[in-house]
């Protein structure tokens, strides 16, 4: 995946359409997030990534390898896994390639950041995945 278009209305439309269809109550909460005051930038690295206030959401050198390393924390034979924070989706994409994963919970930690990311990145591949459950941190009592 490349980040070819930094802000793309078609990404927002496609991503939001899936979320609205699959998780309508979540979409209602996400569509009115608190004000976002952080700086998001494309990083000029060998593999394009995004940074928020200078902190990269993924490796700028080998995103796929980093995602595979993170995925090693989840035993191969587990049928259910949790991902806290979307990042730019690389870890989610790696985990859904595992046939043993029957349910993958993706928990949105920062709603304003997530809303900003769905304007910039195409997440439709994993948002369509029936094994994924998209959830908000408030569903889990995580304090903001």
Key terms:
three-stranded parallel beta sheet; 144 residues; alpha/beta; three-stranded antiparallel beta sheet; single chain; 6 strands; 6 helices; 18% strand
Give a verbal description of the structure.
- The chain is an alpha/beta fold and 144 residues long.
- Helices cover 35% and strands 18% of the residues.
- The protein has helices spanning 9-22, 24-30, 63-71, 90-95, 111-120, 124-127; strands spanning 40-43, 49-52, 55-56, 80-84, 103-108, 132-136.
- Helix 1 (9-22) packs across helix 5 (111-120).
- The longest helix has 14 residues, at 9-22.
Summarize the entry for a quick read.
With 144 residues, the chain is an alpha/beta fold.
Counting DSSP E segments of at least 2 residues, the number of strands comes to: 6
Sequence stretches where pLDDT stays below 50 over 5 or more residues = 1-5
Query: Strand percentage, roughly?
Result: 15-25%
Roughly what percent helix? Answer: 25-40%
Number of helices: 6
* Sheet/helix structural class: alpha/beta
Widest sheet: strand order? Answer: 1-2-3
Question: How many whole angstroms does the radius of gyration measure?
Answer: 15 Å
Mean pLDDT: 87
Shape: globular
The ordered string of helix (H) and strand (E) elements is: HHEEEHEHEHHE
Please report the distance between the alpha carbons of the first and last residues.
30 Å
Q: How are the SSEs placed, and which strands pair?
A:
Elements: H1 9-22, H2 24-30, E1 40-43, E2 49-52, E3 55-56, H3 63-71, E4 80-84, H4 90-95, E5 103-108, H5 111-120, H6 124-127, E6 132-136
Parallel strand pairs: 4-5, 5-6
Antiparallel strand pairs: 1-2, 2-3
Helix pairs in contact: 1-2, 1-5
